Amino acid sequence: MREIRKYGLIGYPLSHSFSPTYFKEKFLKENISNTSYLSYPIADIQQIWNILPSDIQGFNVTIPYKEKIIPFLDALDHTAKKIKAVNTVKKENDRWIGYNTDVYGFKETIQRFIGRRKIKEAMVLGNGGAAKAVIYALKNLNIKVHIISRKRGYRGYKNLDRAFICRNKLIINTTPLGMHPHDKKHPDIPYAFIEQKHLLFDLIYNPKKTLFLKRGEENGAFIKNGLEMLHLQAEKSWEIWNSHTKNNNDNVRTRAGEQLG
Fold first, then answer.
1. What are the start-end ranges of the H helices in the chain?
2. Is 224 in the active site?
3. What sign does the dihedral 249-254-255-256 (CA atoms) show?
4. Three-state DSSP string of 208-232
5. Of all helices (H) and strands (E), which one includes residue 171?
6. CB neighbourhood size of 145 (10 A)
7. Which of 6, 66, 107, 236 is an active site residue?
8. Quick one: CA torsion of 87, 92, 95, 98, rounded to 10 degrees?
9. Closest by CA position to 246, among listed 92, 95, 100, 96
10. Which of 23, 128, 205, 214 could join 226 in a cystine, given CB atoms 3.0 to 4.6 angstroms apart?
11. Contact 178, 210 (CB under 8 A)
């Protein structure tokens, strides 16, 4: 009997995640046998290697560990090192390598969402690990980014006037506000200023339409959730896990910055 290839997802809590279901369906549809993908809720990141199976070959990372996972890894690929956030980890030659496929998933999705519209500026709500991937992708698309956060050093939610909202036609929620089971929560932005030319994108995909998206839609804005992004980043993770190590090394660097050979 062939040895089972093990993959999974870490985060806390994990009741909101579709990833295990997505991969289970993928394995059935594509006749991928002897392969498992399980959830590993970890309340304390310090316990990661005690909780994960010793023979796991790769795993995804979600809230709240996309940044906190980095000290536990041996190296990062170029993109993960650049944005300092990881959502995919692969075991390569007994070394744990961090990647970020959120950038790919978001960039592909947002380009389709924007279409031929000319977007010059965007508001990104939140500044956590997911926000870092979004910001990196938007800058690569030559879109000026304004980070909105309650943390010191950023524009606050109470400093969003009509002129600023009207100038930023793309608004992206990267916070967990509105995620199931807290469906009644939403980012505290002035929704009254949103118009028909606005595009609202929410990384949350459960529920399908968050209160953030609903309120934007009520004012005529175009809306989209993060489900397509999830699918794209998941497929990219699967591609990384099943690629040969020698093909990855050109873009993998240790945390100190030297290239792996």
1. 19-29, 48-51, 78-83, 102-114, 129-140, 162-167, 211-218, 227-241, 245-248
2. no
3. negative
4. CCCHHHHHHHHCCCEEECCHHHHHH
5. strand 170-173
6. 18
7. 66
8. -20
9. 92
10. 205
11. yes
Which domains, ranges and CATH numbers included, belong to the chain? 5-100+230-253 (3.40.50.10860), 103-228 (3.40.50.720)
pLDDT in tens, the chain (261 residues): 578 999 999 999 887 678 999 999 999 999 999 999 999 999 999 999 999 999 999 999 998 999 999 999 999 999 999 999 999 999 999 999 999 999 999 999 999 999 999 999 999 999 998 999 999 999 999 999 999 999 989 999 999 999 999 999 999 999 999 998 889 999 999 999 999 999 999 999 999 999 999 999 999 999 999 999 999 999 999 999 999 754 444 456 554 344 332
For the chain, the distance separating the N- and C-terminal CA atoms, rounded to the nearest angstrom, is: 34
pTM for the full predicted model = 0.89
Cα gap 234→252, rounded to integer Å = 20
Tell me if 37 sits within 8 A of 59, measured CB to CB. no
Residue length of the chain:
261
Question: In this structure, what token pair is assigned to residue 98?
Answer: 């961090």
Evaluate the omega torsion of the peptide bond into residue 190 and state whether it is cis, within 30 degrees of 0: no
